[in-house]
Amino acid sequence: MQAIFVQFKCRPGTAYTVADDLVESVEEISEIYSTSGQYDLLAKFYLEAGRDIGHFVTEKLQTVDGVVDTFTTVAFKAFGRG
């Protein structure tokens, strides 16, 4: 599995609705947070190895009503205890 993190900029007043819509409609989502700064939401997704990240983001995430912009970060390795 490949982890990607996507930040979402939403139309004013829609961030919580966008978060709810993503949780309900995108099975690859792991978690989502409301954030401060240039973007309103930060979400973590797990994609199958070899899955086209560009198509996933443009077809499944950027098309959610209320999403104005996204910024995607691909994760290479997870570090942690144990």
Q: Given the C-alpha coordinates, what overall shape results? A: globular
Percentage of residues assigned to helices: 10-25%
Average per-residue pLDDT, rounded, comes to 96
CATH superfamily: Lrp/AsnC effector binding domain/regulation of amino acid metabolism (RAM) domain
CATH class: Alpha Beta
Structural class: alpha+beta
Radius of gyration: 13 Å
What quaternary form is this?
single chain
Whole-number count of domains: 1
CATH second-level architecture = 2-Layer Sandwich
Low-confidence stretches: none
Total helical segments = 2
Order of helices and strands: EHEEHE
Separation of termini?
19 Å
The main sheet comes to: 4 strands, antiparallel
Query: How many beta-strand elements?
Result: 4
**CATH fold naming:** Alpha-Beta Plaits
- Strand line-up across the major sheet: 2-3-1-4
Could you characterize what this model shows?
The chain has 82 residues and is an alpha+beta fold. 24% of the residues lie in helices and 37% in strands. The chain has a four-stranded antiparallel beta sheet, covered by helices on one side. It is globular, with a radius of gyration of 13 Å.
